[in-house]
Design goal:
The complex is a heterodimer of chains A (427) and B (452).
Chain A: H1 2-11, H2 21-25, H3 28-33, H4 47-50, E1 62-76, E2 79-80, E3 87-99, E4 102-113, E5 129-130, E6 141-150, E7 154-164, E8 167-178, E9 181-191, E10 194-207, E11 210-217, E12 220-234, E13 238-253, E14 256-265, E15 268-277, E16 288-294, E17 314-326, E18 331-342, E19 355-356, E20 360-371, E21 382-398, E22 410-426
Parallel strand pairs in A: 5-19, 8-12
Antiparallel strand pairs in A: 1-2, 1-3, 1-22, 3-4, 4-6, 6-7, 7-10, 8-9, 10-11, 11-14, 12-13, 13-16, 14-15, 15-17, 17-18, 18-20, 20-21, 21-22
Chain B: H1 2-14, E1 36-40, E2 42-45, E3 48-51, E4 58-61, E5 82-84, E6 87-89, E7 106-109, E8 114-117, E9 129-131, E10 138-140, E11 153-155, E12 160-162, E13 165-166, E14 177-183, E15 185-194, E16 197-205, E17 211-218, E18 222-231, E19 233-239, E20 245-251, E21 254-260, E22 270-273, E23 277-283, E24 289-294, E25 300-305, E26 311-318, H2 320-323, E27 333-343, E28 349-359, E29 365-367, E30 370-372, E31 377-385, E32 393-394, E33 412-420, E34 425-432, E35 439-447
Parallel strand pairs in B: 2-18, 3-14
Antiparallel strand pairs in B: 1-35, 2-3, 4-13, 4-14, 5-6, 7-8, 9-10, 11-12, 15-16, 16-17, 17-18, 19-20, 20-21, 21-22, 23-24, 24-25, 25-26, 27-28, 28-31, 29-30, 31-32, 33-34, 34-35
Classes of the chains: A mainly beta (427), B mainly beta (452).
């Protein structure tokens, strides 16, 4: 029964920690090619996710549309982990308005997965499972921001990253026998209230060729709170209530602070940034599940033993470079390259839980074309960008502490290949 | 206007490309718990399944002469037939288990002792069938027995196909009884993976009370008995480094050993170890045979063997006291060790010990407000060793397998044996009453658990 108790509590339903797809790959192809180094370099619509202040750095109305597809060749114990492919559409919008020396801008970053608005899937925590890269990369990302630029030296922006909870009165059903007839009826009450986390950013341009930027995004998650209440009335046999109450956090995105710098050296732009992701604040990797059975004959619930699951803070250095050339009257081209090292925030899983995650090397390459004077409705350049990003997971093998569990250890490894392409129109 | 149009087109394009993927993605990795109970192992002896002695032999009248069409699954058979030991026939039953999984479409009509398809209306039945009022099962309409399916005859009074359950020819009034099940006690499974599937060695006790060691071949949950190997009990089979097989088994109060080049032809048994029972044989990485047994004191003890499979040098590996944990505190008996070597991904060689133990793994129940202690029962526990099996550390969450019925009843589970099939594990165990004195049948569970 003890293992059964764990089955009903800890083992059956781990909550999972996740970054979102845009954190993992970068918003829009240009930033993906720079391995996500977009805090100081992104401007206009592309900045709506990475640094809201950058939205005001563009004088044009911008609309960016991109599609991304990531092949997840991830392995657990040498076998295909069958991680769901993240693929979806990114839409960025920047709407600036010039008010004398001040430019005000509204921006929106939207990521819409192909398959799900959000997906919650819970498996036993003892089973190896990719904690940050599983199918849960697939949830919608909505980030509206506003920004102000003062002259050409300073810009500031703020906004919110928006998600939803899933809760309400849950599911209630009645089963039993009344007046000799079988009775069964059910009701459901589920709400998806909006949650938001603050996003702020600042960009300072002490020289025309130098940008120094910082950004912050608050932690955000989807809190699943679901109660299932069964009224059972079988006269002479069983009568009473059973309540199953599940509270779990999904899609956790930690507090993130980023510092970045970008330097223009003629046709060459170099950028570097350091991200600090405060995973140590994530203490709800395992959900709470209460089962209260009031059927007058049932055994009481065995108190579960929840292990403490802590993650490490994550420091991610990113480097990027872009080289631009003009080829004729109607065409500019840009070549981009980027590198990032993403150490895993997941500690060695020698105990009961088996969250799989690996240190990652991220390399991005990309190309961009700016087409000028193409058609009458687009008097300003139309940008076409494409990027290839490869994330190589350093193999990791974990043995279990036999004094804690007889569960087997596990190994994890793999490669992620992202292909993304899109266009950016200026008006 | 043009700006608005371009913006609209961008938004519309963003909505393209929606496409669904399977609802449950992601590989599931086997683990020591939890398990999905798959039910009794389908063990066929010729045309009949071996079932628990409490169920007894049974079949249907009048079908012995002509076998049903050959099949591999129920889908190969007609609407009211099931695939029983490779032949299509209406299936006899005295328990729900015998009609397959709950979502398999068949239910047991206990009054008629046959598996039926449930229905509420005629249109839920096949052509030529009708949903029998008040019974909610599909039955065939007929004018003659030729209109019926295998195992049935046409009842001229009702115009329906009926089947008559029997245990012997004498129950059939002149026709023969085609047995679909035969009673026998099956225990102590020892599975190995072969090129063609799974070979299962097990102890079979017939009506005469004599235990013999049999082997069967199958896919992991369905087997056909090959033949009887030796008189004896509790076999444990291991593969030797040269690809041949070794077996240790009990006969009386001693253990005997045999060898086989192919798992089919076995050498004459030779004495291996006196005063021991319920062995589990493992060949160490250096080729040394090791066997864990239940010793006369009730402890699980390791013995080292010679290449000739003669064992000595005892070392107590687990006692009832050391197997007890805070969640399984009062273990008084250990039984049926099954040792499984493995290498953790970090390169550490380890041994996993599955064992049956008698104790209380569940707290008291509240029965109509009265706290009632849960009686002790046999459950399956797990321990791990990092020192070659000299000592084992019990899992803190033992027992790892313990069935519960009707909220408060805990039947017994004994004789564990685990088979690693890569993407999933199978746990063979023997069902029994709580104190293990009345064995039922061999059953199997699977890990990882599967969403239903």
């Amino acid at each position: 029964m003890s293992r059964a108790a764990l089955f009903f509590t800890l083992l059956m339903i781990p909550a999972l920690a996740h970054a979102n797809a845009l954190d993992t790959f970068g918003f829009q192809p240009r930033i993906a090619a720079l391995a996500g180094a977009g805090t100081a370099e992104a401007r206009g619509q592309a900045a709506a996710f990475h640094n809201p202040a950058g939205v005001a750095l563009s004088d044009d109305i911008e609309v960016g549309l991109a599609y991304s597809y990531a092949a997840m060749a991830l392995q657990l114990d040498g076998r295909d982990a069958k991680v769901t492919t993240p693929r979806g559409t990114s839409l960025g919008v920047a709407l600036p308005a010039h008010l004398g020396p001040i430019t005000a801008a509204f921006g929106l970053a939207l990521y819409l997965p192909d398959q799900f608005i959000a997906r919650i899937q819970l498996v036993p925590a003892t089973e190896p499972h990719f904690a940050l890269l599983d199918n849960n990369l697939q949830h919608v990302v909505v980030q509206p921001v506003v920004a102000l630029r003062f002259g050409h030296a300073f810009a500031i922006g703020a906004g919110a990253s928006i998600l939803a909870d899933a809760g309400g009165n849950g599911v209630t059903f009645d089963v039993g026998v009344s007046s000799g007839n079988k009775v069964g009826q059910a009701a459901i009450d589920l709400k998806l209230p909006i949650r938001a986390a603050p996003v702020v950013g600042v960009t300072i341009m002490p020289k025309p060729w130098l940008r120094v930027a910082a950004a912050y995004r608050g932690e955000l998650d989807l809190k699943l709170s679901l109660d299932i209440l069964a009224h059972v009335d079988l006269p002479g046999a069983i009568s009473g209530d059973t309540l199953i109450s599940l509270v779990a956090l999904n899609f956790y995105t930690p507090h993130t602070v980023t510092g970045a710098v970008a330097v223009d050296l003629g046709a060459l732009t170099l950028t570097a940034q350091l991200d600090w992701l405060k995973w140590s604040s994530f203490t709800s990797a395992l959900p709470a599940l209460d089962v209260n059975i009031g059927l007058a004959i049932a055994p009481p619930l065995v108190a579960p033993n929840f292990p403490t699951v802590r993650f490490d803070d994550q420091y991610i250095p990113r480097l990027g470079a872009e080289l631009r050339r003009t080829l004729g009257a109607h065409l500019d081209v840009a070549a981009r390259i980027g590198y990032a090292y993403m150490p895993s925030p997941v500690k060695p899983q020698t105990g009961l839980t088996s969250f799989a995650d690996n240190d990652r090397h991220v390399v991005g390459v990309g190309v961009g074309f700016a087409l000028r004077d193409l058609i009458r409705i687009l008097p300003k350049p139309l940008h076409l960008d494409a990027a290839l990003q490869v994330q190589q997971l350093e193999p990791r093998a974990t043995g279990k502490d036999p004094h804690v569990t007889a569960s087997p250890g596990f190994s994890s490894s793999g490669t992620i290949v992202l292909l993304t392409a899109g266009l950016e129109a200026h008006f | 206007m043009m700006r608005t149009l371009a913006l609209f087109l961008c938004v519309v394009a963003a909505g393209c490309g929606f496409e669904r993927e399977a609802p449950y993605a992601g590989a599931r990795v086997p683990d020591v718990a939890p398990w999905s109970d798959l039910g009794p192992v389908d063990l066929c002896l010729a045309a009949a399944r071996i079932v628990a002695p409490s169920l007894g032999s049974a079949g249907l009248c009048g079908t012995a002469a002509a076998a049903g069409a050959s099949c591999a699954s129920d889908g190969d058979c007609k609407s009211r037939e099931r695939c029983v030991c490779g032949a299509c026939t209406v299936a006899v039953c005295d328990s729900a288990d015998e009609c397959g999984p709950a979502d398999g479409g068949f239910v047991c009509t206990f009054s008629d002792r046959r598996c039926d398809r449930a229905c509420d209306t005629d249109d839920q039945c096949q052509r030529g069938e009708r949903c029998v009022a008040g019974r909610h099962v599909c039955r065939g309409s007929c004018a003659a027995t030729a209109d019926c399916q295998h195992g049935e005859r046409c009842d001229s009074g009702s115009g329906l196909c009926v089947a008559t359950a029997c245990a012997a020819d004498g129950d059939c009034g002149g026709t023969s009884c085609a047995l679909q099940r035969t009673a026998g006690l099956v225990a102590h499974a020892s599975p190995i993976v072969t090129a063609s599937g799974v070979e299962l060695f097990f102890e079979h006790t017939g009506d005469d009370g004599v235990a013999n060691i049999w082997s069967a071949a199958g896919d992991g949950s369905r087997f056909t008995v090959d033949h009887m190997l030796f008189p004896g009990a509790t076999p444990s089979v291991a593969r030797l480094p040269d690809g041949s097989f070794a077996m240790v088994f009990a006969d009386g109060a001693s253990l005997f050993a045999a060898r086989s080049p192919d798992g089919v032809r076995w050498s004459a048994p030779t004495p291996a170890l006196p005063n021991a029972r319920q062995p589990s044989l493992v060949i160490a990485a250096d080729g040394t045979p090791l066997v864990w047994v239940v010793d006369p004191d009730g402890n699980l003890t390791r013995f080292s063997g010679t290449p000739d499979l003669v064992f000595s040098t005892p070392r107590v590996a687990l006692t009832p006291a050391t197997a007890s944990t805070p969640l399984w505190p009062d273990i008084d008996t250990l039984a049926a060790p099954f040792v499984q070597p493995y290498v953790d991904p970090d390169g550490t060689p380890r041994l996993r010990l599955w064992f049956a133990a008698h104790g209380t793994g569940t707290g008291p129940s509240s029965q109509f407000g009265t706290p009632t202690p849960t009686p002790p029962d046999y459950s399956i526990g797990l321990a791990v060793s990092a020192d070659g099996g000299a000592t084992f550390i019990p899992d803190a969450y033992d027992p790892v397998f313990d069935r519960t019925s009707d909220f408060i009843n805990h039947p017994g589970e004994l004789d564990p044996a685990v088979l690693d099939l890569g993407d999933h594990w199978l746990l063979y165990y023997r069902r029994a009453n709580a104190d293990g004195t009345q064995g039922e049948t061999l059953a199997v569970a699977s890990s990882p658990v599967t969403p239903r």
